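lol ok so funny story. i was supposed to be doing the assay writeup but got distracted and ended up predicting the structure for this chain instead. priorities right. anyway since i did it might as well share w the group, maybe its usefull for someone
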Amino acid sequence: MRRLAKGLGIDSDNTSIIVEELRRVDYRVLVKTVYNKSIMGDFIPYDAHPFAPSVEAEGPTAFITERAFKLLDEGKFAKVPHIIGHTTEEGSFAYDYIHSGTTNLHLYETSPEILIPSSMNIPRDSACSKKTLDEVKTFYFHNKTVTDPFSWTKYMSQDLFTRGIAKTAQLLAKKADVYYYILSYNGSRPMSYHGGVGHYEDILYLFYVRNRWTNVRTPLDDLIRKRLVTIWTNFVTTGNPTPYSDPLLQNVTWPKFDEEESFLDINKDLTIGQAPERADRDFWKELFRKCGSEPYHTY
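and the output, tada:
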């Protein structure tokens, strides 16, 4: 935030003054400046946004007054059914910044410590900092270069999305009905870079998005779209994504994400699996146990 303020000519170390002065700046200038390397330095996709939801002081207009992880862990959320899930290559979102030249993949070779999840609250240059980085390099990069695009994208899928999504589902399921999905159907217009299903592709089957819409699609694309729209409509109207047997949905009953951690795999066929991405989740569970430092804002 201070770098941004300085780049915009705000000469102060007082955060209250900085905030007041930034409020006077046109929002378009603020957003453009965030991506200015000469001011902000190299852009890190998951750690360089100065504007994001934050914990507020208690008050009549406050929206989030406690850490999100704490709220979920203590069951302080609406006890309503939830659908939650992800695609198979959510890290494509982060790779967009590499592909566009907004950031340089080699930054992770020269400054590998930025691979350490900020959510773990690990002090820089500590024993746990080195241990965490070593274990991440071993598990996700097989002790080879951290600039391998495929391995980097897989890691970003976990660090930005699926680790937190899975943990959220676990916490929600203690108090509410949760239905977990993984979209693994690779359609005719993939938004990924390494053969998976990219970030945001599930949304495109559910909603009209003007700059992404196309009439060039296959019969199977249309079938997947009809299935997803039906599932989500069922959920909105009944709280259950498969309330009755339906040939369109291959007569599948989508079980809740409970002790068995069942999930729906959405591919050419709809199938039920258990314990999504178990190896990754076990890796993070153990690493957080050994080196994570509470309280967590996120997971």
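The chain is about 40% helix and 5% strand. The beta strands are 82-87, 178-183, 262-266, 270-274.
back to the writeup now i swear
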